[in-house]
Design brief:
alpha+beta, Alpha-Beta Plaits, Cathepsin B, Chain A, 3 domains, 5-stranded mixed beta sheet, 11 helices
Length: 385
């Protein structure tokens, strides 16, 4: 007999749904309860998977078992052997060929925000707190930009296997934002998701910046650099000598309207120079950008980078695709070139992104193997008269 069950669980104490060698999983804990009730340990098929610490309100799974226990009695029997943070809500029989994963046509994620200066003592584990009053109407309008069938390559995690195989088109059927008092909910329904498609850019709390804010992040970092090392204090409205996460998040939200994440990403050099340039213009700074397209040779790119670095200026770098898997974390991504070292036949460039710095061969990084390429941005900020 094939049983379909609906579960709810608090994922705080689990390494995810799937059985893992490195920790306690929801699946293994549920199978323990099955074994206690049925005397056997059937294989279970989950409708999806959840990561470590992720909760579920309505998770479906199925398994085959020979038992005289009627479906309506299974929830009570299993719940007696399950910990309090996992509960079976319902059970029914389904056709023998039913498979919970293959039968799942949509998945819905719910993100909860406690929009209040003070945490709630009752359910702090189930939301992110944002103290500043959110404009849920503006958030709702922005959320509608994601509805429909799109290529979400620019919004998935760098190194995603789906990205490597070109399988990055997904359909979002619903994305809406609602407020109930101090609680703001963001609910997203789609036919499937890429890894980190809905959650990325870890520091950013804004839902749009969170999933595609790398261009704005490089602009923010450039402003901090110019404020700290070039005396342009008005480029960064906080203390550049004592950086804090909260200040950076606030600054990123100030930059967001200028370099807003788009469905296809900020994937053109002109989008970056136009947006960042408008921000600098609005704060009264005279700036000059030079767009250096990926159609140039690696040798020409080396000359460009060395010139700007020697002037004491970081270089924003846009990379689109790359056939070499070792650069997977930099696919469809903006990052900063902050230094270099010359060798006999190459230029080793130091790049900063994801809060870390690493060094690459420019020749290898530049020659992507694809016709469509990104490029570099040269920035010159002039002294005010």
């Amino acid at each position: 007999m094939n049983f379909l069950l609906t579960l709810a669980y608090d994922g705080t104490n689990y390494c995810g749904f799937q059985v893992q060698p490195n920790g306690r999983s929801v699946a293994a804990t549920f199978q323990d309860a099955l074994e206690a009730v049925l005397g056997s340990r059937p294989d279970i098929k989950g409708c999806s998977r959840t990561d470590a610490g992720v909760h579920a309100l309505g998770f479906r799974l199925n398994f085959h078992a020979d038992t005289r226990i009627p479906p309506q009695k299974l929830p009570l029997a299993l719940n007696q052997h399950l910990p309090p943070d996992i509960r079976v809500l319902a059970a029914q029989t389904v056709p023998e060929d039913f498979h919970a994963r293959y039968a799942a046509h949509t998945k819905t994620y719910l993100y909860r925000i406690h929009n209040h200066p003070i945490d709630s003592p009752f359910d702090a584990a189930y939301y992110t707190r944002v103290p500043r009053r959110l404009d849920e109407a503006a958030m709702q309008a922005a959320a509608q930009q994601f509805v429909g069938t799109h290529d979400f390559l620019a919004l998935c995690a760098a190194g995603s296997s789906a990205a490597a195989h070109g399988d990055t088109v997904r359909t979002i059927t619903d994305c809406h934002v609602t407020r109930r008092g101090d609680e703001v909910d963001i609910e997203v329904t789609a036919d499937g998701y890429l890894y980190n498609m809905v959650r990325n850019q870890d520091w950013f709390r804004n839902v749009v910046m969170h999933i595609g804010g790398c261009a704005a992040a490089t602009a923010c970092d450039c402003c901090i650099y110019f404020a700290k090392y070039k005396g342009k204090k008005n480029l960064y409205p906080f203390d550049a000598e004592n950086l804090s996460k909260e200040d950076y998040i606030q600054f990123s939200m100030k930059m967001k309207p200028y370099l807003r994440p788009r469905m296809s990403g900020v994937n053109k050099l002109w989008m970056y120079t136009e947006g960042f340039g408008k921000y600098l213009e609005d704060i009264g700074e005279k700036v000059e950008f030079k767009e250096f397209s990926g159609e140039h040779t690696a040798r020409e790119a080396a000359v460009f980078i060395k010139k700007k670095i020697n002037e004491g200026t970081p270089v924003p770098y846009l990379m689109l695709r790359h056939k070499d898997k070792k650069f997977a974390d930099f696919v469809w991504h903006w990052f900063l070139c902050i230094g270099y070292e010359e060798t006999a036949d190459d230029l080793l460039i130091k790049v900063a992104t994801y809060g870390e710095a690493t060094t690459f061969s420019l020749k290898e990084l530049w020659n992507t193997g694809y016709k469509e390429k990104g490029g570099l941005i040269g920035i010159t900020v002039y002294r005010n008269l």
